[in-house]
Design a protein that fits this description.
This protein has about 210 residues and is mainly alpha-helical. It has helices at about 1-35, 40-70, 75-100, 115-155, 170-205, and strands at about 160-165, 165. It has a two-stranded antiparallel ribbon with strand order 1-2. Helix 2 (about 40-70) runs parallel beside helix 4 (about 115-155), helix 3 runs parallel beside helix 5 (about 170-205) and helix 4 packs antiparallel against helix 5 (about 170-205).
Length: about 210
């Protein structure tokens, strides 16, 4: 009987300890959500700006690859498609620059957002360098196009309708496409400079 009582008492003690631990676990679980810190809304905004910049950086890589490693001279259609891409990048860079300017008044010096503004500035500089590279490549393409057009014009003086497999209409179309692309590159360069300046001032304001 004594042993049974001792066993029963032991079981009750263990059960009590189990309930106590369960109660502590519930309390800890109830406290846990309160310990999760909320992300600063500004951090999300800056992450969004960075995401947009990374995408434009990738698009510029594609444009540079098209201009720099093309196996053959781009057609008027190729140049037109590239022009559409450059216009879209220009629009997006101007949008990001506007977002940066909008943050000037709200950002506090010495905040924990400095690491984000520094990264934004770094990517803005990368984008600006690549925009400059696009301008250089388009300038080289324009020079080659003019030289080829002059050569083809000489070869077609004797009344030939085609020069080196291209009609005069094709040559003129390509010249106009290169001129439009040069104008698009100029707009892109202006947007990248504007973005770089806005990102620089945002970084300075956050220090």
């Amino acid at each position: 009987m004594k042993n049974r009582f001792a066993l029963s008492a032991g079981l009750l003690l263990i059960a009590g300890m189990g309930l106590a631990f369960a109660g502590d676990a519930k309390k800890e679980a109830a406290v846990q959500p309160a310990a999760v810190t909320q992300e600063n809304p500004k951090v999300r905004e800056f992450k969004d700006i960075l995401f947009k910049l990374v995408r434009q950086d990738e698009y510029l890589d594609e444009a540079i690859e098209t201009l720099d490693t093309s196996a053959s001279a781009p057609t008027a259609e190729d140049l037109s498609a590239l022009g559409v891409s450059l216009k879209a990048i220009t629009k997006n860079l101007n949008h990001v620059a506007a977002l940066n300017k909008a943050e000037f008044a709200a950002i506090q010096p010495g905040s924990d957002l400095t690491k984000y503004t520094n990264t934004i500035l770094s990517y803005s500089r990368k984008v600006d360098r690549k925009a400059a590279q696009v301008s250089v490549l388009i300038g080289q393409l324009s020079a080659k196009n003019k030289k080829a057009a002059m050569r083809d014009a000489v070869s077609s003086r004797k009344g030939a309708k085609k020069a080196r497999g291209k009609s005069v209409a094709q040559i003129v179309a390509e010249q106009k496409a290169v001129e439009r692309l040069a104008a698009d590159a100029k707009g892109l360069r202006g947007a990248s400079r504007n973005l770089n300046a806005a990102s620089k001032w945002l970084y300075i304001a956050s220090k």
